[in-house]
Design goal:
Blueprint lengths: L4 E3 L12 E6 L5 E6 L1 H6 L4 H7 L8 E6 L3 E6 L6 E6 L4 E4 L9 H12 L5 E2 L5 H18 L7 H39 L9 H13 L3 H13 L5 H20 L6 H11 L5 H5 L4 E14 L4 E10 L5 E9 L13 E8 L8 E9 L3 E3 L6 H14 L6 E13 L2 E6 L4 E3 L4 H11 L4 E7 L4 E8 L2 E4 L8 H9 L3
Parallel strand pairs: 4-8
Antiparallel strand pairs: 1-14, 2-3, 4-5, 5-6, 6-7, 9-10, 9-12, 10-11, 12-13, 15-16, 15-18, 16-17, 18-19, 19-20
Length: 492
């Protein structure tokens, strides 16, 4: 029987337990209120580091201007000649700042809201916001209105015509994809015949041209994977990683040729890997899974260009399911919701179609303050390996496998960190040396329960339960340190 763990969250600071109503009266005497506690404001930060740094700017003397209306507050700070412009919209809330930090809300936005929560007298009430605030709020209103717009009702004939057009477009795209995959298969067989050594010394244009042809064939996801191959070749064991990646791609090519013989769910996986996206409205139209969910882990990675991808993992209390919420942020616009690790919520999630469903969309949710019972862990590494084998059999392209491992101890041996269970089976960890020693110190030789993801060769620990309390092991932004460093280096 799996051991049931109850996560008990530490006591809040005294000031955070007192609810404080944020109230700002505009000249029209229309009150806009937002009930937030000190701790809830800090939970809006994208990571603990940003929350901590926000406290240093939550002082009126740090700001040149502090103003607001019944809807929003804003301020300027930093270099007087070219200050940072920070603004908070109570409807959401929403944040924006002109500082160079890509991840929003930044420390300035959180700090501004913290300052307002404890000293709203420092803000001057104005009738008309400055142009940069008006423009930002108008953009938010426009996006919100666009989301709420409903398509006009169509006649039966129009619906049939639209369905026929979609069918034609799909057939055209499938034809283009098949042609692109045939070209890719020819390239792969030539490469295997010549040997991987023929890739050494290839110019950047070689990879760019191949990726561009995949883009033309509507295979954008494969194009991105091809563009990443030169980065693998810069590593010491590049031939093994290149061979593994090309093997996955070749399996995709052969599966696509026999798609009509595959189960419908695996066809959905294959199309998703090829770059075919599902519409959110179609996913949300399906019935979902209601449960109590724990925010158990989170990572953020830098994709191509200015695109960031955030992966948040949820554990279901009754269903014992794991769910992955994948979100994207372009150009530092931030994410819709700041998920604080260890948060419990009641909600309905809808899984994307897959032979081994993981990714979800949140249909509805509300936060909960009650404890969470974890009863979905693996008591041994052997049972974990068996379940992973079953998942891989269902979806051979499974890139991440989430797991809650019970009764394990982190150990450093033979120049690497591993998890050891009671049967002395081992699991290698994907963790930095600094974080690895922190995990060893947290354990102090005791058995832990750790949540993380198996990446194919190593296990990335994301969180742990220590003496009944939830502990974060992996910060969401640590794969992308550039933005954090720019913020730390700034004077403000």
């Amino acid at each position: 029987m799996l051991r049931i763990l109850q996560l008990r969250f530490g006591e809040m600071p005294a000031r955070s337990t007192r609810r404080k109503k944020l109230l700002l009266i505009s000249s029209s005497l229309t009150p806009i209120s937002l009930e937030l506690t000190y701790d809830k404001i800090l939970s809006l930060a994208p990571d603990p580091g940003t929350a901590q740094r926000a406290k240093s700017v939550a002082h009126a003397q740090r700001w040149h201007t502090l103003e607001g209306t019944g809807r929003s507050i804003w301020g300027t700070l930093g270099n007087p000649a070219d200050p940072y412009r920070t603004q908070v919209d109570f409807q959401g809330p929403g944040f924006s700042c002109s500082c160079p930090v890509r991840r929003q809300p930044c420390k300035h936005g959180i700090g501004l809201l913290l300052l307002f929560s404890k000293n709203n007298d420092a803000f001057r009430v104005v009738d008309e916001p400055p142009e940069w605030v008006v423009s930002w709020l108008a953009g938010r209103d426009k996006r919100a209105a666009k989301t709420e717009e409903k398509a006009p009702a169509r006649s039966t004939e129009a619906e049939m015509a639209l369905a026929e057009k979609r069918k034609q477009n799909r057939e055209k795209r499938m034809f283009q994809m098949a042609a692109g995959l045939a070209e890719l298969e020819s390239w792969l067989t030539d490469l295997f015949r010549q040997g991987l050594a023929s890739l050494e010394g290839q110019a950047a244009g070689y990879w760019h041209d191949l990726a561009a042809r995949m883009v033309d064939a509507k295979l954008g996801t494969l194009a991105r994977r091809i563009r990443q191959l030169p980065h693998l070749m810069s590593q010491a064991d590049w031939h093994e990683k290149i061979l593994s990646e090309l093997g996955d791609i070749y399996l995709m090519v052969k599966a696509f040729q026999r798609m009509e013989y595959l189960p419908d769910s695996l066809q959905d996986d294959l199309l998703g890997l090829a770059g075919v996206n599902f519409k959110k409205e179609d996913i949300l139209a399906q019935s979902g899974l209601n449960d109590t969910w724990l925010v158990a882990g989170q990572t953020e990675t830098a994709e191509e260009g200015n695109l960031l991808a955030r992966r948040t993992w949820f554990l279901g209390e009754k269903s014992r399911r794991t769910a992955l919420l994948l979100e994207f942020s372009w150009g530092g616009q931030g994410y819709e919701t700041a998920w604080r690790m260890g948060t419990v919520l009641n909600g309905e999630v809808v899984f994307y179609p897959s032979a081994y469903p993981q990714r979800v969309l949140l249909k509805s949710f509300e936060f909960s303050g009650r404890p969470f019972d974890v009863a979905s862990g693996f008591s041994t590494l052997e049972s974990f390996a068996q379940k992973y084998a079953e998942a891989l059999a269902a979806n051979p392209w499974l890139s991440q496998f989430p797991a809650f491992l019970e009764n394990v101890v982190p150990v450093f041996q033979k120049n690497k960190f591993v998890l050891v269970d009671r049967q002395r089976k081992q699991l290698p960890l994907l963790i930095s040396e600094n974080e690895g020693w922190k995990l060893v110190a947290i354990s102090s030789g005791r058995l832990l329960s750790i949540f993380g993801t198996w990446e194919g060769e190593t296990f990335m620990p994301l969180s742990a339960v220590v003496d009944g309390q939830f502990r974060l092991l992996h910060f969401a932004g640590q794969e992308n340190t550039g933005a954090t460093k720019r913020e730390d280096d700034g004077a403000f």
